Amino acid sequence: MPKLITQVGCPYCGASCDDLEVLVSDDGKKILETRNACVIGSEIFHHATNPNRLKKPRLRQPDGSFKEIEYEEAIDYTAKALLNAKKPLIYGFGSTNCEGISAVGRVAEKAGAVLDNCASICHGPSFLAIFDNGYPSCTLGEVKNRADVIVFWGCNPMHAHPRHTSRYSIFPRGFFTSRGQMHRTVICVDPRETDTAKLADMHLMVKQGHDYDLFNAFRTVLRGHKIPEEVAGIERAKILEVAEKMRNGRFVMIFFGMGCTHTDGRNHNVDIAISLTRDLNDHTKASIMAMRGHYNIAGPGQVWSWQFGFPYCVDLSKGTHAHMNPGETSSIDLAMRDEIDCFVNVGTDAGAHFPIDAVKHLKKHPFITVDPNICMASEISDLHIPVRIVGVEEPGVVYRMDNVPIQFKKVIDGPESVPSDEELFDRIYVRICELTQTEPIWVHGKAPVPASTSRVK
Amino acid sequence: MATIRMKPVKTPDLFLECFCISPDVFAGKTPTEISRLEVREGKARNELGDFFDIAGSSGKTAEETDIFIDGDCSRVKYIGSKMTAGSVTVNGNADMYVGGWMKGGSIHVRGNVDSFCGLAMEGGEIQIDGNAQNYVGCAYRGDWRGMRGGTIRINGSAGNDIGTFMLGGTIIIEKDAFIHISTHAEGGTVVIKGDVQSRVGGQMVKGDIYVFGTIEHMLPGFKEIGTVDKNILGQSMKFRHFIGDLGERHPKKKGREIYGNLYLRAS
Ligand code: SF4
C-alpha cells in the first residue's frame, strides 16, 4: 500500500509551506503524488526520483572531461583545496537545512574561509538596513490573522512565492480577517504590471529606481507636510490616497523584494521602508517583512549570527575574530576584485547567478560545487559533489521568511551512499583536522566534546 | 620630524591587509623592526618587509613620524587606519579603508582610493588627489555614529554613500557624486562642488549639505525656504536654501524644530 505522508515541508520558495501531502510507494523509494503544493513546489519532489540523478562525485580531468570518483577522494580534495588557499570563499546555502549550514560554519572556521550566503546577491541589502535601522517585523501568522492593508513593494509573489497570497497575505480568512480578500486592501508598488499588480486594489507604477523618493514622499505626507505635484512618476493625489489608506488601516503589512534591494540605493530603499513602518506605528499598527527567496535562506542568517555574530559576508580568515563588511567581504565584490583563491559553491548556482567577470576570476582557482543537481556551476566546476535533497530525502530545520523555524521531513530514502550536506561537511571537517594535526571538537553523530575538557590533554 | 620611506617591491596575489601602516605603530621602531611587522593576505601571515623596501627613520612618537610610500598601493588595505598623529603620504593609489577610524594627523594619497575612505573618522585630515569609490566618511555597518570630526577632501569624484550617519567634520568632493549624501546625518558638513544624481539628505536629521552643481532629482522631503549668501571654503556665493528631510524626526530647540540644511547654488 502506498503511504500518505502529511504535514510535509516544501523545499522550494521562502513561503516554506508545511502543509504538503506526499504519496510514496510501498518501498519508500518513489514519489507517486504531491498534494497542496504549487507547480514549482511539486516539481522539486518529482525531480528527486529522476533516474539520471548523480550518485558519485565527479572530478575534472586534464582533458576537460569529468571522471566519477569516491566520496573519500572528493572530501580529501576539498579539504586540501580549502587549506592551500589564502582566502577561500564558501558560498550558497539557498537549498540546505540548518544542520548543514552549521556544519559548514565549523569547516569555514577551521579553514579560515569567508562564509557567505545567497542573501549576498538577494536580501543582503535588507540585512544592512536592519543593522542600521532595526526590523519591526512579525510572523506570517500575524499577517494572516490581522493585516488588512497589504503592501507588496518591488516583489511579485504570484510568480516567486505562489502560495504566499493564499496562505498568508491576500486570501486566507484569519481571526480578525474573517472575510479573507474582502477584508483586505492590497497595494502593489512596481514599475511593471505584474500578476501581483493585476490582483491588487491599487497599483503604483513607480518610476524605475525611484522607490526611495516615493517612500520619502509617504513619510513627508504622514508628517503633515506638502509634497510636489508628482513624485517618482506618481501623482500627488494618488500618494495622498494611499497614505490615507495606510493610516486608516488596522494593521498595515509591507512586503518588499528585489525591486527594493537591487535597484539604486539598495539598503537605503529598505532602510527608509523600515522608517516608514515606524512612522505608521504612530497612527496604527504596521509591520514589515523581506520576501526571502528560498525555503531556508533565512537559515544561514540565523545559524551564523549565533555562531559568529554576523548573518552573512563573514570573513573568518583572521583566525581570531570574524569580520563583516559587505562591499568588501561580500562574494561578488571579493570575486570581482579577484580576492578569492578557492571557491566552494553549496546548494546554489553561482555559475548562473554571478556576473560573468566574477565567475571568470573564480575559475582561475579551485572551483567546487556541492549540489544534488546538475547546474551551470556544477558544469564548470573542478569537482562536483552530489548530496541528498533536503526536505525530500533528508529532514532538518529550516527558517521561513518570517524567521520561524520549521522541522522539515524526509519523504523518501536518498540514493545509497550519497551523504547529506551535514555529513559531507562534517567529514571534510574531520579531514581538515587530520591534515592540520588538530583535535576535532565535533565528530558527526557523536555528542560534541565540551570545550573545557577538550583543552585538557 | 623623521621619515620612514617605503617602496613597494612585490604585488600581493590577493590583497594585503596592513593594519600596521600608521605613524602610531612605526614610531620608535627601526626600519628592520618595521619590516618585521605582520601583514595579512587572507589567512597567510607575512611581514611588511616581504612587500616593501623600508628605509629612513621614525620619530619617537607618532607626531614626529612621517611615512612616505613611493609607489602603487592599489592592493593594500587599511593605510593610516586608526592613526592619531603624524602623516602618511602615498605616491600612487590606495585600496580600501584609507584613514578608517582615524583620530588625528594627516593622510595624502596622490592617486585614487577605493571604498570606505575615512570610515567612522574622528579627526585629522585626508586629502585624495584622484577619485574615491563609495562610502567616503561613512559609518561602519550598523553604527549610528558615523564620521565625528576631521576633514576629507577628494579632488576627483566619489560614488555613493557619502557621510552616512555623519555627526561632525567636513567632507569636500571637488567633482561629482552619485547618490546618497548625508543619509541619516545628524551633523557635519558635506560640500559637493560638482553634480549629484539624487537622494541628497534622505532621512537627514541635522547637518549641512552644499551642492555647487545640480541635483538631478530632489527628494520630496526637502522644502525651499529662500535664498542666502554664504561664504564657504573661501568663496562667497548665493544659494537656494532647502530644509529637510521633512519626512524624518527632528529635535526641537527653544520650541522650534531643527532641520537639516541643503544649500544649492543659485544659478
Ligand atoms: S509556495 Fe513555495 S513553499 Fe509553497 S508549495 Fe509553492 S514553492 Fe513550495
Please tell me about this protein's structure.
Chain B: Its EC number is 1.2.99.5. Chain B: It comes from hydrocarbon metagenome. Chain B: One of its GO terms (biological process) is methanogenesis. The complex is a heterodimer of chains A (457) and B (267). With 457 residues, chain A is α/β, with parallel strands linked by helices. Chain A folds into three domains: 3-48; 58-122 and 295-436, Rossmann fold, CATH 3.40.50.740; 124-290, Dimethylsulfoxide Reductase, domain 2. Chain A contains 19 helices and 21 strands. In chain A, the strands form five sheets. In chain A, strands 5-4-19-18-17-6-7-15-16 form a nine-stranded mixed sheet. In chain A, helix 3 links the parallel strand 6 (88-92) and strand 7. Chain A is globular, with a radius of gyration of 23 Å. By secondary structure, chain B is mainly β. Chain B has one domain: Pectate Lyase C-like, CATH 2.160.20. Helix content of chain B is 5%, strand content 39%. Chain B has helices at 23-26, 31-35, 48-51; strands at residues 2-8, 16-17, 38-41, 44-47, 52-56, 65-69, 76-77, 87-90, 106-109, 125-128, 151-154, 170-173, 177-181, 186-192, 196-200, 206-211, 215-217, 223-232, 235-244, 252-253, 256-257, 260-265. Chain B has a 13-stranded mixed sheet with strand order 5-1-6-8-9-10-11-12-14-16-22-19-18. The longest helix of chain B is centred in the N-terminal third of the chain and has 5 residues, at 31-35. The model of chain B has no long low-confidence stretch (mean pLDDT 97). The chains are: A alpha/beta (457), B mainly beta (267). At the A-B interface, helix 4, helix 9 and helix 12 of A face loops of B. Bound molecules: iron/sulfur cluster. Iron/sulfur cluster (SF4) binds next to helix 1 of chain A.
